[in-house]
Design brief:
This protein has 363 residues and is an alpha+beta fold. Helices cover 31% and strands 30% of the residues. It has 13 helices and 20 strands. Helix 1 runs parallel beside helix 6.
């Protein structure tokens, strides 16, 4: 269980009868959804298959729209992000030619700028995923998160939903919101194990990712690029970088097209030699080659899976619904999938409030 007795920010209450809700998954979207439900007066229990809070993926960014949703869900969610996140300093999000420039000076000049858009439109705030998750988890009441609870099946009855876990234990709830990620067990149970819509497909993209000292990024890209979100584009690949940890670290992703099938869809990450990334961008400009050279000798390789080939025809049946990547995993770009998950949480909390209010009035 959670070993935390810090309470959420003051609940605004719920004039309707609150529900007893089970949330499956204690990643960013699961915890964020839980905080929103608690703030709006519901009773929540969280079931997580891992032994502790676990959030990979290096860094992530949230748009201004996502942050407004956080504020409406529970102001503490936004406050937690502001505690650990960094906003873009430059007024524009810029997209650079990472392939053709033959010198670092040319790479930093306006000649290499392909296009740009106002940073105000998307208004990103970036953070390290695990740091943000743990900051949010500080607000969860003691005893509501149960770890080592891997969902095995569920059934619905007159009194709600009965959840069964792989350790043989069971739990009861009036409703279930499953935020158990791209390989969601709840989605397979909801849609059917043999339904193609229940499983993600390889997007034929892999991402190499690393977090390096900001000084190393400045050396390769220059002061202005390193201290702001920027993307570098080239044939069959692109690179995304942005500062995190109060501008002390740089989060670097190199996305590469991969025409081969991924060997095992159950294992999406692997630790590989840096030489694999070096080979992928060997013909790129000197700035990008230098930045990749500053990555550690072992880097994380992430196979990108999404639901684009077989999108789910529904996200809910009966008293059970799926949210975030469990519902509509997308090929990631600067937190787009997580931002949709934040919107999911607000929609669910708002719909529950509306439905319960109508039920009270009609009753």
């Amino acid at each position: 269980m959670a070993a935390n007795d810090t309470q959420p920010t003051e609940c605004q209450g719920n004039e309707t009868t609150p529900l007893d809700i089970a949330v499956v998954g204690a990643g960013i979207i699961g915890v964020l959804t839980t905080l929103g439900l608690l703030y709006h007066g519901h009773k929540v229990t969280v079931y997580e298959r891992a032994s502790n809070y676990s959030e990979g993926g290096g860094a992530i960014a949230f748009t201004g729209v996502a942050r407004e949703c956080m504020k409406q869900l529970n102001p503490f969610i936004l406050e937690a992000l502001q505690q650990v996140g960094e906003a873009n300093r430059h007024p524009m999000n810029r997209y650079w030619d990472g392939f053709h420039p033959t010198t670092k000076e040319l790479a930093q000049s306006e000649e290499s700028l392909l296009f740009q858009q106002s940073a105000h439109e998307l208004d990103y705030t970036g953070c390290i995923r695990s740091v943000y998750l743990h900051e949010m988890a500080k607000a969860l009441p003691d005893g509501i998160v149960w770890f080592d609870k891997e969902l095995e099946s569920y059934s619905e009855g007159p009194e709600g939903v009965k959840l069964r876990f792989s350790d043989g234990s069971t739990a009861q709830a009036e409703a279930v919101i499953a935020c158990d990620g791209i390989h969601s067990k709840a989605r397979r149970l909801l849609l059917g194990e043999d339904n193609p819509e229940s499983r993600p497909s390889f997007a034929h993209k892999v991402a190499y990712r690393a977090i390096i000292p900001i000084a190393e990024s400045i050396s390769a890209l220059g002061e202005e690029k390193a201290n702001n979100q920027c993307a570098h584009l080239g044939p069959d690949a692109h690179m995304l970088s942005f500062p995190v940890a109060q501008w002390t670290l740089s989060n670097v992703f190199v996305f590469v097209h991969d025409s081969k099938p991924w060997p095992d869809s159950h294992y999406l990450t692997a630790e590989v030699e840096k030489s694999e990334v070096v080979a992928a961008i060997s013909k790129w400009g000197p700035s990008i080659r230098e930045l990749v050279d500053k990555m550690p000798e072992k880097v994380s390789k992430w196979a990108i899976f999404d639901m684009a080939d077989n999108p789910a025809n529904t996200y809910a049946r009966g008293r059970v619904c799926i949210a975030g990547d469990a519902a509509h995993a997308s090929s990631p770009f600067h937190g787009a999938g997580a931002c949709m998950g934040v919107e999911d949480a607000l929609v669910l909390v708002s719909v529950l409030e509306t439905a319960l209010s109508r039920s009270v009035r009609s009753g």
